[in-house]
Amino acid sequence: MCTRYISPEAGDIERLWHVGADKPWRGGEVYPNGQGPFIRAARPAADGQAQPVRELVVGQWSLIPWFATERKLKYATANARSEELAQKASYKHPWARGQRCIIPAQAFFEPNWETGKHVPWIFRRPDGAPWGLAGLWSTWADKETGELVESYTMLTLNADAHPLMNRMHRPDPKRPPAMQDKRSVVPIALADVDAWLHGSVDQAQGLICLQPVQAFDAQPAV
């Protein structure tokens, strides 16, 4: 599971993904329950005027399900297992409704335990460009205040068979080596962004896949 990443500045996000921002964003490290930017399909304008196909939104990195009674959750929703999206109560409605998003990340971090200790590794793209990571978003209404809170989750995929990603995360001694359920984020290529944001569930499902080792520039973050 990814619990820390570096967000690009708003200007870099706007230039690469061709979106406009509703509010300024300076970039920097993002942690669960903190604020971060994500890109989603633009909502239709109330006055019927033409709108861009994408919009940049700043929200909470930990998706707040529609049934939550308070903003602060007692369970983790920063990451969502892609294999469970259609069944898990927190994610099945956003997934079915096509509430998919792109999470811009200049780099992300994963823990390596090969030394017996937590050693953070940093993952960048070899070309230096930001990642566009797959996510889901939701808008939650606070019944007491009426406030609308935007939030998002980052999708992950089983990576037990991946030569690099299966080296990350603390091993579970109760599980055999081939069934550790190591996880990987899900990058979405620029050419596939519109299919991810606007396509059908089946089209989106086809984009959830592991990336080859050469897609990552990974090393200890020291």
What features would you describe in this structure?
The model has no long low-confidence stretch (mean pLDDT 93). The two termini are 20 Å apart. The chain has helices spanning 10-17, 92-96, 193-198, 201-205, and strands spanning 5-7, 28-30, 35-41, 54-61, 79-81, 100-105, 107-112, 119-124, 131-141, 148-158, 183-185, 217-220. It is globular, with a radius of gyration of 17 Å. It has a 5-stranded antiparallel beta sheet, with no helix packed on it. A 5-stranded mixed barrel has the order 3-4-10-9-6. By secondary structure, it is mainly beta. It has a single domain, classed as SOS response associated peptidase-like (hypothetical protein yedk fold, Alpha-Beta Complex).
Strand content: 25-35%
User: What name does CATH use for the topology?
Assistant: hypothetical protein yedk fold
Q: What would you call the structural class?
A: mainly beta
- Please mark out the parts with pLDDT under 50 across 5 or more consecutive residues, or reply none: none
Which CATH C-level class is it?
Alpha Beta
- Tally of discrete structural domains: 1
- Please give the alpha-carbon distance between the first and last residues: 20 Å
